[in-house]
Amino acid sequence: MPIPSRDELTALAHDALGRLGVTAPSGDHSQSSPVNGEVLSSLPYADAASVDDVVQRSQDAFRQWRKVPAPARGALVKRWAELLAEHKEDLATLVSLEVGKITSEARGEIQEMIDICDFAVGLSRQLYGRTMPSERPGHRLMETWHPLGVVGVISAFNFPAAVWSWNTAVALVCGDPVVWKPSELTPLTSLACAATLQQALEEQGAPADVSQVLIGGADVGEALVDHPGVALLSATGSTRMGRAVGPRVAGRFGRTLLELGGNNAAVVTGSADLDLTMRGIVFSAAGTAGQRCTTMRRVIAHRSVVDELSDRLAGAYERLPIGDPMADGTLVGPLIRRAAYDGMQGAIARATEEGGKVVTGGGRVLEDEAPDAFYVQPAIVRIETQSPVVAQETFAPLLYLLPYDDFEEAVALNNAVPHGLSSSVFTSDQAEAELFLSDEGSDCGIVNVNIGTSGAEIGGAFGGEKETGGGRESGSDAWRAYMRRATNTVNFSGELPLAQGVDFTV
Ligand code: UN1
Fold this sequence. Notes:
Blueprint: H1 6-19, E1 29-32, E2 39-43, H2 51-65, H3 70-86, H4 88-99, H5 103-123, E3 131-132, E4 139-147, E5 150-154, H6 162-174, E6 178-181, H7 187-204, E7 211-213, H8 218-226, E8 230-236, H9 239-251, E9 255-259, E10 264-268, H10 274-286, E11 296-302, H11 306-318, H12 338-353, E12 357-360, E13 364-365, E14 375-376, E15 379-382, E16 398-404, H13 407-415, E17 419-420, E18 422-426, H14 430-437, E19 446-449, E20 461-462, E21 465-466, E22 473-474, E23 483-491
Parallel strand pairs: 5-6, 5-8, 6-7, 8-9, 10-11, 10-18, 11-16, 15-16, 18-19
Antiparallel strand pairs: 1-2, 3-4, 4-23, 12-15, 13-14, 17-21, 20-22
Helix pairs in contact: 1-4, 3-5, 3-6, 3-7, 4-5, 4-7, 5-6, 10-11
Bound molecules: 2-aminohexanedioic acid (UN1).
2-aminohexanedioic acid (UN1) binds next to loops.
């Protein structure tokens, strides 16, 4: 299957945008498709000076939106979900064009948007506060959750649509407007996704500025980070980015929700079902060309199974169809750009110096056909110890395979990296599974049994500990980050007893 030409990809983008009612933009900042490495579109960029106006408009929208009853806000999100379902194919095409995701994963990303909308619609009738027994007679003690304010969302290239929607669907039912600064690498997906929401807002008579998008560079993101009118800044990206953003927002007493890097491992015990384990590993490690924050980057396998696992994984890796992500049958698309390929090559070279051996992969493919695109064979490196390079996150399909002898040692290896996003254990031994899930087990925000590290459902809270940033978004009670809590004491006693028995009678 030949890699599509620039004209073919541009036509696909134009057609998809056209059906979504988005005029193809034109401007000075060109953007390439990872599919062939050639220019896909050129766009105008917002400048940092415009951010103040955008945030002010968002604050105006907030004053109107917070008055709309939460279930009515949910009705807006319900309509948005219908529009996303209607345009699923076109949105998925844009994700494939801009990120290089295979069609099934690109569709999955849009499905994830629809799912979080469904969740948010239900949530719109469940923004529960608690009541507590008061220690004083004739008093009521309770808490109320109120809309917070403007939510700034900075999203990464690898989930250009879903991560914004996790934030947006939940923020909207919580009564908050959203200002979105997407990755520079995925502007068309962003414009298209925002257009679907804009249509729903218009149809429901909601303020248009409840959702705004800033296509621009790092200066625009920084202006959003520093703007005192942004109550919550939700940022997804590298730990380096989070280290810069976190203290800046904290310095103005804003809230952050950080979703940063991961160096996710699976522990494979001697009792694991290797057929199931293999499938779990291959999807999590090589799927999305290794470019999910939940991608499996380490397998820590019991010494009794490590050789067999290595051979079987190598066989599966060598059968992976690599190429045009939109062609039938492809399982591994391109890396996002040259820097990702260089990073992978650098990590393999370092791992070799640190005692590792390449079991399979690492080579570039389709270079003649698409010299500016970066298709690579997913790689496995066998290494005896968790050397410095293994403890780093390399955002590419590079899997380290390490042996262990005792289960406790495996858990310690799982935890001995700076990140704490996702982890798995593959085992048939319930005690090992429970230990991995226990307080002495994995220190990650996501801890799985007999399933890979990636591909989480939206119903759970998504995020991780340590250098992953500590944020939680998507399902469960992650909505609380988007609201402010008021504790209310109501006195209907006609007396004024003070708490803690304090006497203050004048
Ligand atoms: C990300 O890579 O930033 O769990 C998000 C997963 C997806 C989300 C990944 N549902 O792999």
